[in-house]
Write a sequence for this structure.
């Protein structure tokens, strides 16, 4: 709760937009008003995390209509619309944005190539071409870094002083494609669309469609991943 209480700046937009008067906010005249405001803060913080591009005025209007018993949609119609938007419209928007971003990146960085799935990569160290993992049963040992497209570190096995030892077949599609392009001792820098990395499903570092949509503007849905193949057999 403490984190929520100190988020007054982030919530100023919501408080102002929900006010009936364009020039000022709601006055908290009683304890119940303060509690209502705190509830609004919590709702606003959750919505901000889910999708920072939401139309706050529309959110507030929906809340008012429910309290007035005059909602513009039935509960069933609202559920159908919401699920269609979250499960189909948002993922398609994210896919199209990622495709354009990676295509533009490849054009402006001639050292990078692209696989059919959209993995955009540059081999930094080719490695031993006699020891390249091919079969899903092949064992691999990897050190890797995952960053968002805006440069923020998500995970680093170097910092953890850890090496991933597993079979090639257990890796996600983008990771598998990247590792198969280098041999033992090789290193590759790859940009991956979420669909072949940690997309709407798969792993604790996954991003769901709502998160991806909210982060479209800062290009954080695509991940930049650097792999070093320590061993393959």
């Amino acid at each position: 709760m403490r984190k929520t209480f100190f988020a007054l700046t982030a919530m100023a937009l919501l408080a102002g937009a929900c006010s009936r008067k364009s020039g000022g906010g709601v006055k908290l005249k009683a304890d119940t008003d303060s509690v209502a405001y705190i509830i609004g803060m919590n709702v606003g913080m959750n919505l901000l995390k889910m999708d920072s591009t939401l139309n706050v005025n529309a959110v507030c209007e929906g809340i008012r209509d429910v309290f007035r018993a005059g909602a513009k949609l039935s509960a069933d119609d609202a559920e159908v619309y919401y699920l269609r938007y979250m499960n189909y419209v948002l993922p398609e928007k994210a896919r199209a944005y990622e495709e354009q971003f990676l295509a533009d990146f490849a054009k402006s960085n001639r050292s990078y190539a692209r696989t059919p799935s959209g993995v955009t990569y540059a081999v930094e160290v080719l490695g031993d071409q006699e020891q390249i993992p091919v079969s899903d049963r092949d064992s691999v040992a990897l050190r890797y870094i995952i960053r968002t497209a805006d440069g923020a570190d998500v995970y680093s096995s170097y910092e953890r002083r850890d090496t991933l030892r597993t079979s090639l077949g257990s890796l996600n599609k983008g990771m598998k494609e990247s590792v198969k392009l280098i041999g033992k001792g090789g290193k590759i820098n790859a940009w991956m669309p979420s669909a072949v990395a940690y997309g709407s499903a798969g792993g604790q570092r996954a991003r769901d469609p709502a998160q991806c949509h909210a982060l479209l503007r800062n290009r954080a849905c695509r991940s930049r991943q650097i792999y070093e193949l320590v061993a393959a057999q």
